[in-house]
Design brief:
With 681 residues, the chain is of the alpha+beta class. The chain folds into 3 domains: 1-166 and 270-296, no CATH class; 177-266, Immunoglobulin-like, CATH 2.60.40; 322-328 and 336-527 and 548-681, no CATH class. Helix content is 18%, strand content 22%.
C-alpha cells in the first residue's frame, strides 16, 4: 500500500474564485494508508484510510446561508467570503469498482465516531486502523465508503476527536457579548464540578471578575430558582489561564439539586458553520472525484442521537441543499433522535446540550415542528412540518426515523407521528419511514452494575435491526425497492397511550419503580429576537405549556407493543423497558436515566414466582425446557427475517446468544443484585 502526503485537489486558484465559485475551495489529502492491512472484506476487498482537510468559503449574503446565525458577523476575506476549514477521514475500498457506490457520511457525535461501534459492533475508536477496529466488518463487506468530518465547535479536544475551529463573531471590530446559562447536577456530593456538560467547552467571561455571574439551585426543572450567595462559590482557574470550565461551592454540591450558572460571555462561535461544512463537503464530493476514485453514485447521511438531531435541524433549516440549490444527500438515517433537534444554529449555542426528563430544560432541543407532515400547534396557531423548507427547495431526501423505547420516555419520540396535543396520529410523509424497536434502550446496554440506577440495563441488541434497515434504505435509494412498512405505536390502535395509562397496565413487579413521567418538552420563550435573528434575550428562557407526549402500551409482561418486536421480545426471558429510574442516593428518584433501559428476568419457577409475589409467568410455565425455548426463538427469528427486519446471516449468532442468556438466568440467584449474569465472558 502506498503512502501519500499532501495531495492537494483544488476547484481552482483561490485568486480566481468569486462568490459563485465559493463553498469548497479545495481538498487536501494529508495522509493515506492501508486500513486493516492484509484484510479483505468480501466482495469489496481491501480498504484504505484517507485523512485530510477541506477549505470552505461561504457567501454570507446567499439565501442558502441565511439560517446560519451571525454569519454576517464573521471575518471576511478580500472577496467578502467567510472562510473556514474542517478535517475529515474516509475509509473506502482500494478498488472503487468493488464498492457499492454509496458514500455513507456519519455525523460524528461530539467529535466521536459511533457508527462502527453500533453497526460493526467494534470497540470505540476515533482513529480506526486495524482489523479489530473493523469489528464484525459489516459496513466494509457491503462496500460502503465511509466519511466523517469536523462539525462541532464546542467539544473538548483529545482522544482523536474531530473538532471544528469555528470563526468568532465580532461587530465593528468589537467583541460580541451576551448572557449564557449552564445547568448541572451531581450524582454524589462534591466540592468542585465541571459545568459545561458532556465533553462541552465554555464561552469565555466577558469581564475577568464577571460581577454579574449568578449560581442558583432548584429541586425540579420547573421549580423556583434560589440564588446562592456569590461569596460561597467561585470559578476555578484553569491551568495555563484558559477559559474556566469548573466552579467550586462552599459546603459542596449535593445530589437532588439542579444548579444553574449564568454569566455574561463573549466571543460566540458561529456554530452553524458546522452544518454548512457538512452540506458543502457532501455536495462537493457528489460532483468531484477524490484521489483517484470517482464521485459516489448516491450519498447517505447517518446520525445517532445528537448527530441525528443535527440532521433534523439541517432539514428544518433547509441546510441540506447547497448554495446552488442542489441536495447534499439522497437519504438520511435518523437514529434515536426522537423528536429532538438541537442547539446548532443560534448565538452562543451549545450543541452538546439536550432535553431529557430531568436535565437541560433551558436549551432549545425539542421545539415545534416535529412531524414530517404539516401539523398545527394549538398554543400558537402555527401550522408547519419539519420538511417544509426542504420541500420548498425540492430537496426532500428519503428518510428513515429509527427509535427505541427509550426515546418515547426521554426524547419525546411520539411527536414525530402525532399532533402536538397528542390527540391524533399523523402519517409520515411519503419520503419517510418510521420504525421503533420495541423494548430496546438508546444503545445496547453494557453496564455490569446498577450504578446510580435502580435496575440492570437492557441488553437487547437492536444493532441487528439497524443493519437490516440500513441495507433497506440503501436499496430504496439504489433502485426504488420499497423498504419494510412503517412500524411504530399509534393512538388509533391503542398501542400509544399516556404515562398514567402505562402505569395502570404495567405489571406490579416486586421492588420495580416506575418513573413519574416521560419527557414533556416545555415551549420555551427566548425572547422576540430568537426566531428572526437567532439571538436569545431570555436567559434562562421562560417555560410555557409543555407539548403532550405519549408512550407505548405494555403487555402483561411489561413489554412494549406497537413497534418492531425482535425474537427476544416475541419469546421473552424477562421484562425489557426503555427507562431506568435513578436511585435515591443519586437524587431525583422520580426521574429516568437519559439513555438506559431496564431488564428484569422472569421468575425461574412457579414456586419462586409465588414466593416473591411476581405477577409474571415463570420460565418454567412458559417453556418446557431449554430446547423448547430455542425452538420458539428460531421460529420467531424466521418471522422477523421474513419481514426484512433481520438479516438471515444474523440468526446463528442470535440463537447462540439467546441460549447462553437462558442458561445464565436459570443459574442466577435472584438474591444477587449484580448485573454480570447478563453478559458472557
Amino acid at each position: 500500500m502506498h503512502h501519500l502526503a499532501h495531495l492537494t485537489l483544488c476547484l481552482g486558484l483561490v485568486s480566481l474564485c468569486s462568490p459563485a465559485d465559493a463553498k469548497v475551495e479545495h481538498v487536501e489529502i494529508r495522509h493515506r494508508e492501508a486500513f486493516a492491512p492484509g484484510a479483505e472484506f468480501g466482495p469489496a476487498g481491501a480498504y484504505e484510510k484517507l485523512q485530510g482537510r477541506a477549505w470552505f468559503a461561504l457567501d454570507a449574503n446567499g439565501a442558502a446561508n441565511a439560517p446560519i446565525a451571525d454569519l454576517e458577523l464573521a471575518p471576511r476575506d478580500e472577496r467578502g467570503l467567510v472562510k473556514f476549514s474542517a478535517d475529515f477521514m474516509m475509509l473506502r475500498p482500494v478498488d472503487s469498482a468493488r464498492g457499492n457506490g454509496t458514500l455513507l457520511y456519519e455525523v460524528n457525535n461530539r467529535g466521536n465516531i459511533a457508527i462502527l461501534s453500533q453497526i460493526n459492533e467494534a470497540p470505540p475508536s476515533n482513529d480506526p486502523a486495524t482489523g479489530a477496529d473493523a469489528g464484525n466488518g459489516f459496513l466494509f463487506r457491503q462496500g460502503f465508503t465511509l466519511l466523517w468530518s469536523a462539525w462541532a465547535a464546542d467539544v473538548v479536544p483529545g482522544d482523536n476527536r474531530m473538532v471544528l475551529d469555528a470563526p468568532i463573531a465580532t461587530k465593528d471590530g468589537e467583541a460580541v457579548t451576551g448572557k449564557v446559562a449552564y445547568e448541572l447536577i451531581v450524582d454524589a456530593p462534591v466540592d468542585e464540578v465541571r459545568f459545561t456538560g458532556r465533553l462541552g467547552t465554555a464561552y469565555p467571561l466577558a469581564t475577568k471578575d464577571s460581577p454579574d455571574a449568578m449560581l442558583t439551585e432548584r429541586e425540579r426543572p420547573e421549580g423556583d430558582r434560589r440564588t446562592i450567595d456569590h461569596t460561597r462559590w467561585s470559578f476555578v482557574q484553569e491551568e495555563g489561564g484558559g477559559t474556566a470550565t469548573r466552579i467550586r461551592l462552599e459546603g459542596g454540591f449535593r445530589p437532588g439539586t439542579i444548579y444553574e450558572l449564568t454569566y455574561t460571555a463573549r466571543d460566540p462561535m458561529i456554530v452553524g458553520l458546522g452544518m454548512a461544512g457538512i452540506r458543502d463537503l457532501l455536495s462537493y464530493l457528489r460532483a468531484h472525484p477524490l484521489a483517484g476514485a470517482p464521485a459516489p453514485q448516491r450519498t447517505l447521511i447517518f446520525g445517532i442521537s445528537q448527530s441525528a438531531r443535527l440532521i433534523q435541524t439541517m432539514l428544518l433549516r433547509g441546510l441540506n441543499a447547497d448554495e446552488d440549490g442542489k441536495p447534499a444527500f439522497d437519504g438520511a438515517f435518523i437514529h434515536v433522535a426522537g423528536a429532538g433537534k438541537g442547539g446548532f444554529d443560534y448565538r452562543f449555542a451549545m450543541p452538546t446540550r439536550h432535553f431529557s426528563v430531568l436535565e437541560d430544560h433551558i436549551y432549545p432541543t425539542d421545539f415545534f415542528p416535529f412531524a414530517t407532515v404539516p401539523a398545527r400547534d394549538p398554543a400558537t396557531g402555527v401550522r408547519a412540518s419539519v420538511l417544509d423548507r426542504a420541500r420548498e427547495l425540492g430537496a426532500v431526501p428519503r428518510l428513515f426515523y429509527v427509535n427505541t423505547s427509550t426515546e418515547y420516555w426521554n426524547r419525546a419520540a411520539s411527536l414525530i407521528a402525532t399532533d402536538p396535543a397528542g390527540e391524533h396520529d399523523l402519517p409520515p410523509a411519503p419520503e419517510a419511514r418510521i420504525y421503533v424497536v420495541a423494548g430496546a434502550q438508546h444503545y445496547v446496554g453494557t453496564r455490569r452494575n446498577r450504578g446510580i440506577f435502580t435496575n440492570c440495563v437492557n441488553t437487547l441488541n437492536h444493532y441487528r435491526v439497524l443493519r437490516a434497515l440500513l441495507m433497506a434504505l440503501d436499496r430504496w435509494l439504489r433502485d426504488g425497492t420499497q423498504p419494510p412498512a412503517n412500524n411504530y405505536p399509534r393512538i388509533a390502535d391503542g398501542t400509544l397511550i399516556t404515562v398514567d395509562a402505562y402505569k395502570r397496565a404495567f405489571p406490579r413487579i416486586p421492588h420495580f419503580r416506575l418513573p413519574e413521567s416521560n419527557l414533556r418538552p416545555p415551549r420555551l420563550d427566548f425572547g422576540s429576537r430568537f426566531e428572526t435573528e437567532r439571538i436569545a434575550d431570555n436567559i434562562p428562557p421562560l417555560a410555557g405549556v409543555p407539548f403532550v407526549t405519549l408512550v407505548a402500551k405494555p403487555d402483561a409482561d411489561g413489554l412494549d407493543q406497537g413497534g418492531i418486536a425482535l425474537p427476544e421480545v416475541l419469546v421473552p426471558l424477562g421484562t425489557r423497558t426503555g427507562f431506568n429510574t435513578r436511585s435515591d442516593g443519586a437524587g431525583f428518584p422520580w426521574a429516568t436515566s437519559r439513555w438506559d433501559g431496564s431488564f428484569v428476568p422472569f421468575p425461574r419457577t412457579e414456586a419462586e414466582r409465588l414466593a416473591s409475589g411476581d405477577p409474571r409467568r415463570s420460565l418454567e410455565a412458559r417453556y418446557a425446557d431449554r430446547a423448547d425455548y430455542v425452538d420458539r426463538m428460531r421460529a420467531a427469528a424466521a418471522g422477523v427475517v421474513k419481514k426484512g427486519l433481520l438479516l438471515p446471516a444474523e440468526v446463528g449468532a442470535l440463537m447462540r446468544e439467546a441460549g447462553e442468556l437462558y442458561d445464565r438466568i436459570i443459574t442466577h440467584d435472584p438474591a444477587d443484585t449484580s448485573c454480570t449474569y447478563l453478559f458472557g465472558n
